[in-house]
Specification:
Radius of gyration: 19 Å
Strand order of the largest sheet: 1-5-6-4-2-3
Low-confidence stretches: 1-7, 52-59
Number of strands: 10
Largest sheet: 6 strands, mixed
Number of helices: 10
Amino acid sequence: MTTHGGFQPVFCTIVPPHVLDRLARNTDPVLAGPARRTIQRDALERTRRGLTTVAGAPSVAPRADAEPGKPQRTIYDAGHGTDLPGSEVRAEGEEPGQDATVNRAYAGLGATFEHYLEVYRRDSIDGAGLPLDATVHYDREYNNAFWNGEQMVFGDGDGEIFLDFTVALDVIGHELTHGVTQHTANLTYYGQPGALNESVSDVFGSLIKQYAQGQTAEEADWLIGAGLLAPRVTGEALRSMKAPGTAYDDDVLGKDPQPATMDDFVRTGRDNGGVHINSGIPNHAFYLLATALGGHAWERAGQLWYDVLTGGELAEDALFADFATLTVKAARERYGDGDELEAVGKAWEQVGVRTR
């Protein structure tokens, strides 16, 4: 439970609203139809999330046979419906079945749990062994995946623009990290704090993938959602931490709008104040820090981000400068006046965020 001003889980999707909005306006019904239905479904789930927050979400207790430090995964199949969680198809410890989507979801939850436990000694996303539930085959041609404050949900994609949303491990890690933020800093999902919320999920989503693949910062692709885009799309992924604004440039999707520095900060009332757009700025700062330090990014750069997220000093309405200042403080406290302190200050300077 967060130590900040109240437990406020939010509804968070991996595909930004501006992408779905553009698809929904396409003249081809094959492209527009799934996008419109996804937008409508997201709106309903967002409303449901809001009502649950007001009424109080049901608590989820560990199973009676749960072991500390061991995942408790359950995968459900919605059968292309929208009732959650759906029918249970794989429980913790059961062998893989014939459904590759189920198996990928199960493995992705496990990889995320393993990363937080082994790297940061965090027992599940709440730090207290929270069971990890996920639903696959949600709705028909649903072009998204989301964390609803209680569980993960994956669509199969429409096959034209998006593929099965379980194919990208960083997407699973991204969405579950919204749960970590929910249980720690509880960053407000609007404007700069909302962009930080999204960025933190991108950072740890990428680190979870890098950890699973044993990659160094130099070897990593720093892409979020690589493998999600169908072959017809001109692009690599949903976002690039290495080069924000370059993930895709497509005649249907348009061009990736993410800025890399504060010079190009986007002011908008859409997408909760541009949370999926301006997250490119802190994303790029992390990439610059991780590659400057070298080696495995989860060790030093990731540790600093984790220290700030969970340290209790990050306000719910924190701005980029607030977060940056705390990373400098964390670097000094953990590493002294070494390379880490210089590198983190320089990374934020390069993206135009001043530390205090």
